[in-house]
Amino acid sequence: MAIHENDSSPEARVSIITVGNHSYIPFDCSMPMGLYHTKRILHLLQDFEQENPSVEVLSWQSDWYPHMLDGGGVAVRVAGILVTHRPKK
């Protein structure tokens, strides 16, 4: 389980799906792209690494898509983070 940035409430916990050397960290967040997304993603990756010390993260990418705002603007909805890893040597 990863914990969102500075939040230990049950709502902040997410279930990580792992199949082989790939893990998916759900991250449902919709707001204008920027530093907020970046900090949350980096904290989730840090949590993943701390909770899985036997794996080495090789790469990651965010699963995102555009999201129309009520006021007519466009935000980015980040649905999750796909992490590629391997056992540490």
Short description:
With 89 residues, the protein is α+β, with helices and mostly antiparallel strands.
Description:
By secondary structure, the chain is of the alpha+beta class. It has one domain (2-87). It contains one helix and six strands; from the N terminus they run ββββαββ. The radius of gyration is 14 Å and the shape is elongated. The protein starts with a strand and ends with a strand. The model is unreliable at 1-11 (pLDDT under 50).
Inertia-based shape? elongated
Order of helices and strands: EEEEHEE
Mean pLDDT over all positions: 78
For the CA atoms, what is the radius of gyration?
Answer: 14 Å
In order across it, which strands form the biggest sheet? 3-4-6-5
> How would a textbook summarize the main sheet?
4 strands, antiparallel
Beta strands, count: 6
Structural class: alpha+beta
In DSSP terms (H or I, runs of 4 or more residues), the helix count works out at: 1
